[in-house]
Design brief:
Blueprint: E1 2-6, H1 10-21, E2 25-29, H2 33-40, H3 51-60, E3 64-67, H4 70-75, E4 79-82, H5 97-113, E5 118-122, H6 128-142, E6 150-154, H7 164-169, E7 174-178, H8 181-187, E8 199-202, H9 204-235, H10 239-248, H11 270-283, H12 289-309, E9 317-320, H13 335-345, E10 350-353, H14 364-373, H15 377-380, H16 385-391, E11 394-397, H17 403-407, E12 416-419, E13 432-434
Helix pairs in contact: 1-3, 5-6, 6-9, 11-12, 12-13
Length: 437
């Protein structure tokens, strides 16, 4: 492929060397003459292990050159890889001025030169609305619709500074967010089979958010490790010994478990143990704002759900699943119990169906919690799912039931179905409303 690379900083310079090494014809473009001169001399404009050899070989093999002229770059390529900076605004937002400037330049050049087919790929990290702006700019400046001679791709990078070359050849994943099928076909030519990584073809907005999810999670992990370390220090415990075992657990800890968006956590363990750590942190004057913030964040999840249900019209609320998760009758600190308590307090009629829960069978702390929170729980419980569905104006679904159970349900016209766990069998219901999807 013939690829132009706009922006010769960390991502752009590494892309120049590595893509040329894969056999593509590369032309780098930057507003800085100094960077352009360095690339043309086979010298990296950044410090990055192994990049100097790649650039030297690419220049020697005539697979790479650089220019300050964007028209030269676009004319001699079929794909533009945009790697310009996206610095923070004063408020912390994304400053997309460089992206937008490059998009407008490319679009105008494509139109001026009447290039029949051209694709713009953005590697710069930016939020979904910025990519939507890029699409709009390209369509306006070229006078074409996406898939009709112009295409756009959000192609996030997963390169760590210092080992970016190694990461390029051994990425954790490859993500393409293309606007159309024609553009997606071109994406499939980008990397040879030697680049072995799970590859995902998604929408541009999904691709953009994947990068943010990654980096926020990485920041979360660093903060979590450090806050656990601080608590271990004040308690006289070796934090590395603790975290070595923590990280060895790949069934729950280092795994996809608990990472899908859904409702608040509950049960007899997570809230209690997190409160204990936060209490000890206060006692020892140890600042653990992330751990402490989890309690507030979980409460906010509950409050936001309540706001989506409670209204002046006092709709009848049917709750499918009262235990803190399916497959159990444990209602201790179940977040949906807290919601039912508020629904009732706000004057909403409530009925509850839980296939594993019988108020008469509750014992011990489980029973005490349930009846303390909702004293008239027995009156709210209903043994038939369809009866609750027929009665409710709003259904709040917190448990996954068997697919055949949902398939047999007859929905009521005008009913709202609020799904907290992303159940495929519910999506056909009229008035379906996913929690975060």
């Amino acid at each position: 492929m013939r690829i132009s690379i706009f922006g010769l900083g960390y991502v752009g310079a590494v892309s120049c060397g590595c893509l040329a090494d894969l056999g593509h014809e590369i032309i780098g473009c930057d507003v800085s003459q100094a960077k352009v001169d360095l690339i043309n001399a086979g010298k990296p404009p950044i410090v990055e292990d192994g990049l100097d050899v790649l650039l030297q070989n690419a220049i020697k093999n005539k697979k790479l050159r650089a220019t300050i002229d964007p028209e030269d770059a676009v004319r001699n390529s079929e794909v533009a890889l945009v790697c310009v900076g996206t610095p923070s605004t004063r408020s912390g937002g994304v400053n997309s001025v460089y992206l937008e400037t490059v998009a407008a330049q490319i679009g105008e050049i494509v139109r001026k030169l009447n290039i029949p087919q051209f694709v713009v790929m953005t590697r710069s990290t930016s939020l979904p609305h910025v990519h939507a702006q890029m699409v709009a700019i390209l369509e306006k400046t070229t006078g074409r619709a996406m898939g009709k001679g112009i295409g756009y791709v959000c192609h996030p990078e997963f390169l760590r500074e210092g080992i970016a070359v190694e990461d390029f050849y051994n990425p954790p994943k490859v993500v393409f967010g293309a606007t159309d099928a024609v553009t997606e076909t071109l994406c499939r030519r980008m990397y040879p089979e030697s680049i072995k990584a799970p590859t995902f073809y998604v929408k541009p907005d999904v691709a953009a958010m994947i990068k943010y999810a990654d980096n926020c999670f990485h920041a979360l992990k660093v903060t979590f490790g450090n806050e656990i370390g601080m608590m271990c220090k004040v308690l006289g415990v070796d934090s590395h010994a603790v975290m070595d075992v923590f990280c060895a657990d790949q069934k729950l800890n280092i795994s996809p478990k608990y990472l899908k968006p859904g409702f608040a956590y509950g049960g007899s363990c997570l809230p209690k143990d997190l409160r204990a750590i936060c209490d000890k942190a206060r006692e020892t004057a140890t600042p653990v704002p992330m751990l402490g913030g989890m309690l507030q964040s979980n409460k906010d999840q509950i409050d936001q759900l309540i706001k989506r249900v409670v209204s002046e019209s006092r709709p009848k609320v049917g709750v499918i699943g009262l235990a803190f998760k399916e497959g159990t009758d444990d209602v201790r600190e179940s977040p949906i119990v807290a919601c039912v308590e508020v629904f009732c307090g706000k004057g909403h009629p409530v009925k509850v169906y839980d296939e594993h829960l019988s108020p008469q069978a509750l014992v011990g702390a489980n029973r005490s919690f349930a009846f303390q929170a909702v004293p008239h729980l027995s009156e709210l419980m209903c043994g038939k799912l369809q009866e609750v569905v027929d009665w409710a104006d709003v259904l709040v679904v917190t448990h996954r039931l068997k697919p055949e159970t949902w398939a047999a349900v007859k929905w009521k016209s005008g009913q709202r179905v609020l799904d907290l766990v992303n159940i495929a069998g519910l999506r056909a219901a009229p008035g379906y409303d996913g929690l975060y999807w």
